[in-house]
Specification:
This protein is globular. It has a nine-stranded mixed beta sheet with strand order 5-6-4-3-7-1-8-11-10, with helices on both faces. Strands 2-9 form a two-stranded antiparallel sheet. The protein has helices at residues 34-45, 97-104, 117-126, 156-162, and strands at residues 6-15, 19-21, 49-52, 68-71, 78-80, 87-90, 109-113, 130-136, 145-146, 165-174, 177-184. The chain starts with 5 loop residues before the first strand and ends with a strand. It is built from four helices and eleven strands; from the N terminus they run E-E-H-E-E-E-E-H-E-H-E-E-H-E-E. By secondary structure, the chain is of the alpha/beta class. The longest helix is centred in the first third of the chain and has 12 residues, at 34-45.
């Protein structure tokens, strides 16, 4: 787990069956909902750095200049992209995440994890402090890409609970679209 002043927060929108994309890896229009996009972009604007894999990016007008950690196996350990200094490539097999934060001088603020599946799974093990899970109750993506590899056998909520997070509230963003906040339960 990262230093106490760093909060690792996951952000995802899923279909009713727990998918983040269709079978080809594309986010369908049903999961690109303005109310969720407004929450998502505001959250990323408040983040210190964004973490994602090759099938995921945060998009939006401010994305190009936002500091990012690109999770990849194409580097041995850690690499800053000279042509794009806001991007760091990181291989989790070569360096622990706490060492990445230390190398980047990040000792406070929000680390926003935005996917895809392998990255969301990786941070289940590293430890989320919070996870913001939007769900489109009308969308179904059979054969799609799941939020976590264990979906659909287990629900995203079951996996978040198993990772030590607890629901802290749910709100309706618009009819058929919920946003649930999951947070780590403090140790007694």
């Amino acid at each position: 787990m990262a230093a106490a002043a760093v909060r690792i927060c996951g952000y995802a929108i899923v279909s009713a069956d727990g998918m983040i994309a269709d079978g080809a890896g594309r986010m369908p229009p049903a999961l690109i909902v303005e109310a969720d996009q407004l929450f998502f972009r505001a959250s990323l604007a408040a983040a210190r750095i964004v973490v994602h894999g090759r099938h995921s990016a945060e998009g939006g007008p401010a994305a190009d200049g936002r500091p990012r950690i690109f999770v990849t196996r194409t580097v041995a350990v850690f690499s800053i992209v000279r042509a794009e200094p806001a991007i760091v490539r990181w291989n989790p097999l070569g360096m622990p995440f706490t060492a990445v934060l230390e190398a980047l001088g990040i000792d406070d603020g929000i680390v926003a994890v935005v996917g895809g599946t392998d990255v969301f799974d990786l941070f289940l093990g590293i430890g989320y402090d919070a996870f913001y899970l939007s769900r489109d109750l009308a969308a179904r993506l059979p054969g799609g890409r799941p939020l976590f590899r264990a979906v659909p056998e287990r629900s995203p909520e079951d996996l978040l609970s198993g990772a030590g997070l607890r629901p802290r509230g749910e709100r309706l963003l618009e009819p058929g679209l919920t946003l649930a906040t999951w947070e780590r339960t403090p140790l007694p």
